[in-house]
Specification:
Elements: H1 17-32, H2 41-54, E1 61-62, E2 65-66, H3 70-73, E3 76-78, E4 108-110, E5 126-130, E6 133-139, E7 142-150, E8 159-168, E9 170-175, E10 192-199, H4 214-217, E11 226-233, E12 248-258, E13 263-274, E14 282-291, H5 301-312, H6 315-319, H7 328-331, E15 335-339
Parallel strand pairs: 14-15
Antiparallel strand pairs: 1-2, 3-4, 5-6, 6-12, 7-8, 8-15, 9-10, 9-12, 10-11, 11-14, 12-13, 13-14
Length: about 350
């Protein structure tokens, strides 16, 4: 099935969420590099590790992720050092939903510092220091839930379908075809730098003037309708680029805020593609993104939107690493999203 892998993993202190998550992410990263005889062997081979882990923690296994702190686990990414492959489902076999790393046949990793450092002082607030600057990650997803259906009684493998539902905030964008010359710096995901033109709806490419869709772009913080993104694709089937390309939805998962400078550092999240026909309104995951800021604090649409949300949240909620979703000005931006 695959070369040997530790059947009883050492996952740190089972009761310490930071210690466990760090060890789990390291183990997943290592496991994803293992060679499989058949692609369908991946979930089955990993089910032993998942079952052993589930017996020690009070949590539910969701096709490679765990229900608790689910949002923090969504920003896995493919390893750019390896050639991308088609998603497993495209080969005619459903292995896992697109939001699970088990759906790709490529080594994966985690960009976030929370995956490797135990610096959290609160379950929803993660901070790290670099020189005299401090940053706080803000969890931006609301009412997130997941459902996994399996043909096996344990629900540890043989998945037949999976849905991720949430309320989130984001913008629609399409690749302008312009290739920006941007230095990503040492703290980037080292993906593909792409310039996108954003709008509040999928028909934004037909809007010639930013004034026409200012209401949801929050003009107080925005000086342009394009922004450069550091994008890491999940598979080799990348969406079309240029004016005839696909409209994509950029769902913001985290805001990274400089406490020292009281200013936005970057925005990170999922790139989603809406399905067609009778499945319209349902999305698949295509990539993860990060705004290309490198401490320059840009005023593009996603950066402006994140700044707006931070400013409109209460001090108490910001200290707890969350947004004030009951603020009407934030609540009106929430959209219900289903990812399969």
């Amino acid at each position: 099935m695959c070369d040997s892998f530790q059947s009883k993993p050492m996952l740190g202190n089972w009761g310490d969420q930071n210690s466990f998550r760090t060890a789990w992410h390291q183990m997943v990263t290592g496991y994803s590099e293992k060679k499989m005889t058949k692609l369908s062997d991946r979930p089955v081979a990993f089910s032993g590790i998942a079952g052993y882990t589930q017996s020690h923690i009070k949590d539910e296994y969701l096709a490679g992720l765990w229900r608790q702190d689910l949002a923090k686990q969504l920003l896995w990414h493919t390893n750019g050092q390896h050639a991308l492959q088609p998603r497993a489902a495209s080969a005619g076999a459903f292995l896992a939903p697109s939001w699970s790393w088990l759906s790709v046949n490529t080594p994966i990793g985690y960009h976030h510092r929370y995956a490797w450092e135990e610096l959290s002082t609160h379950p929803t607030m993660l901070m790290y220091g670099e020189g005299d600057l401090w940053f706080r990650y803000i969890d931006r997803l609301k009412d997130i839930d997941a459902t996994i259906r399996s043909e096996h009684h344990s629900r540890l493998h043989s998945f037949s379908s999976g849905e991720l539902s949430l309320e989130g905030i984001g913008l629609w964008g399409y690749d302008t075809g312009f290739v920006p010359n941007v230095d990503l710096g040492s703290r980037s995901m080292k993906g593909e730098v792409i310039q996108y033109r954003f709008s509040a709806s999928g028909s934004g490419r037909n809007v010639e003037n930013i004034e026409d869709h200012r209401d949801l772009l929050r003009p107080h913080f925005i000086t342009k309708d394009t922004e450069e993104m550091d994008v890491v694709w999940d598979t080799s089937a990348k969406p079309m680029s240029g004016m005839g390309g696909d409209d994509l939805f950029f769902l913001v998962v985290y805001i990274s805020w400089s406490v020292k400078k009281n200013s936005l550092e970057k925005v990170e999240g999922l790139v989603l593609k809406e399905m067609e026909g009778e499945n319209r309104g349902i999305f698949t995951r295509e990539a993860i993104f990060s705004t290309v800021s490198a401490f320059s604090f840009p005023s593009g649409p996603l950066s402006g939107l994140a700044t707006y949300l931070w400013k409109k949240s209460s001090n108490e909620d910001r200290e707890l690493g969350r947004l004030t979703f009951d603020n009407p000005e934030i609540a009106e931006l929430l959209q219900t999203i289903t990812i399969v």
